[in-house]
């Protein structure tokens, strides 16, 4: 995967992560949020964060000490 592909994928993941954050907040604030649905959204958000971390690691060159 090229650096540009990684950057594009990261941007898409960040957007989805922010959208999930907004959706979770809206569900919790409305009081009508199904706890299972909130839990699924939070789990998806964590998976996105993990994928973003992996991609960010690919952008940073390994430093041999």
TrEMBL record:
InterPro entries (alphabetical): DUF465 (IPR007420), DUF465_sf (IPR038444)
Organism: Sphingobium fuliginis (strain ATCC 27551)
Protein's recorded name: DUF465 domain-containing protein
């Amino acid at each position: 995967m090229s650096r540009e592909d990684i950057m594009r994928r990261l941007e898409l993941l960040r957007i989805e992560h922010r959208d999930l954050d907004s959706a979770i907040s809206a569900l919790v604030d409305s009081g009508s949020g199904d706890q299972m649905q909130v839990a699924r959204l939070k789990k998806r958000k964590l998976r996105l964060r993990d994928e973003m971390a992996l991609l960010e690691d690919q952008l940073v060159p390994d430093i041999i000490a």
